[in-house]
Amino acid sequence: MSSSIANSSFILSTILLTFLVYQSKAQLSATFYATTCPNASSIVRSVIQQALQSDIRIGASLIRLHFHDCFVDGCDASILLDNSANIQSEKEAAPNTNSTRGFNVVDNIKTALENSCPGIVSCADVLALAAESSVSLQGGPSWSVLLGRRDSLTANQAGANSSIPSPFEGLSNITSKFSAVGLNTNDLVALSGAHTFGRAQCRLFSNRLYNFSGTGNPDPTLDSSYLTTLRQICPQSGSGFNVANLDPTTPDTFDSNYFTNLQNNQGLLQSDQELFSTAGAPTISIVNTFSGNQTAFFQSFAQSMINMGNISPLTGSSGEIRADCKKVNGS
Question: Which residue, among 162, 18, 182, has the nearest Cα to 95 in the 3D structure?
């Protein structure tokens, strides 16, 4: 009798635990601010629209902040926190330092939201909304952003160094990093398609131009005329901080050309090209589908952004709503 009671209570606690894990996702809702800040989405969009006038790269920079945030302890705006007595900023982690940008636009969005609905919209939700506006304003799909995330009280610099996929990694490592946060191969290929706009610094791909994997030769999967173009932008003795378009065909438009570029051996980063050039990889057929069908790419991208936005959000009474995205309240 006692063992069957123990067994029942174990089953109940397992069910409860499963419920709690999924409840965090369920608590995010497209209508979270419907009564408390009904104009949240349009405020975010308007600030980004303004920013795009003087910085056409800003959309790509903002979506990257959301991505680099979500891969480190979930979508909790930890990437926005500056160094302090208690915080080692993720901004200084290797994938982010001298690289992530757009923090001033995030601050402008937050200020506009605070003026309209003080203390309501989290910085984590600002990043999720900014990603959607950035994509849709530059020709990409729209989607209903699920909202209700709260902001972290701390950052995880070590986690940023270990969890964010690197442009130098092989496909199996990158697939593992996506899998670790609950994202599958389709998500990996779809989200890589965000490289249909924006720029990358030479230091992130110059190894492919001159000395790939210690061979003394360029990456054999790099188209030769594209190689010539990239070497002009990135001389071997250069600083490494010049930038090249991630999509050489339509650099500021969100479209499916990124995937066609991969088919033509014109992926900029190693992590881009290997989606198509890794022999036998399950990613190849997805690249082919997205290249030939932009609608399929847009639908997958929107769903994968929602999936990524669902990674371990703080909800309910966890975390806080930061007044200033750069620091925890009261600091």
Answer: 162
Give yes or no for a contact between 102 and 62, defined as CB atoms under 8 angstroms apart: yes
Report the SS3 class of residue 81. coil
Q: Which entry of 68, 91, 199, 208 is annotated as an active-site residue?
A: 68
- Residues 6-34 have pLDDT tens digits of 555 555 555 444 444 444 445 899 999 99
CB of 271 within 8 A of CB of 165?
Answer: yes
195 is in an annotated binding site: yes
Full DSSP string of 210-256:
H-GGGSSS--TTS-HHHHHHHHHHS-TTS-S--EEESSSSSTTS-SS
Mean pLDDT of 161-181: 98
- Any idea what the Cα angle at residue 252 is, between residues 210 and 52, rounded to 5°? 125
CB atoms < 10 A from the CB of 263, how many?
15
Active site residue 68: yes
What's the pTM?
Answer: 0.92
Cα 51-55-58 angle, rounded to 5 deg:
75
Query: What confidence score (pLDDT) does residue 7 get?
Result: 54
Q: Which residues contact 318 (CB under 8 A, 6 or more apart)?
A: 150
Q: What does the pLDDT look like over 88-120, one tens digit per residue?
A: 999 999 999 999 999 999 999 999 999 999 999
Q: Is 247 annotated as a binding residue?
A: yes
User: CB of 34 within 8 A of CB of 91?
Assistant: no
The set of residues, in sequence order, having a beta carbon less than 8 Å from that of 225 and lying 6+ positions away, is none
**Residue pair 276/283 in contact by the 8 Å Cβ criterion:** yes
* pLDDT at 210 exceeding the cut of 80: yes
- Cα angle, residue 27 at apex, residues 25 and 33 outer, rounded to 5°: 125
* Tokens read off for 283: 């990613």
Q: What is the SS3 assignment for 50?
A: helix
d(CA 312, CA 25): 8
Residues 6+ apart with CB under 8 A from 142: 132, 135, 136, 302
- Nearest alpha carbon to residue 327 among 4, 54, 113, 107: 107
Check the annotation: does 14 bind a ligand. no
**Is residue 78 a known part of a binding site?**
yes
